[in-house]
Amino acid sequence: MTIHIEVNNQQKMRYLVELLKSMDFVDQIRVDEENKAVVAPVKDEPLSSKYWGAWKNNPLSMEKIDFEIRKMRDEWDRDIY
């Protein structure tokens, strides 16, 4: 199956590619830009495993992390609107 996506913000393209790479059911990612194809191989290990050590050693509780994330989202929403 093939999906075609048009991105209007080229600076955000790398985030989209990283997100797709992190999905275990994605076989191949190809970015066509001005008739240039770039194939990004998909890794076998999930992206979350890269950060597991930092997560495990985090001194913050789950509640504190949730609070901080909500606070950042609220700040971000205020900046947008």
Rg, Cα atoms, Å: 17 Å
Structural class per helix/strand content?
Answer: alpha+beta
N-to-C span: 37 Å
Overall spatial form: flat
Largest sheet: 2 strands, antiparallel
Helix percent reads: 40-55%
Strand tally: 2
Structure described in brief:
The protein is of the alpha+beta class. The protein has 3 helices and 2 strands. The model has no long low-confidence stretch (mean pLDDT 76).
Keywords:
single chain, two-stranded antiparallel ribbon, 41% helix
Give your account of this protein's structure.
With 81 residues, this protein is α+β, with helices and mostly antiparallel strands. The chain has helices spanning 13-21, 52-56, 62-80; strands at residues 28-33, 36-41. A hairpin with a 2-residue loop joins strand 1 and strand 2 (36-41). The longest helix has 19 residues, at 62-80. It is flat.
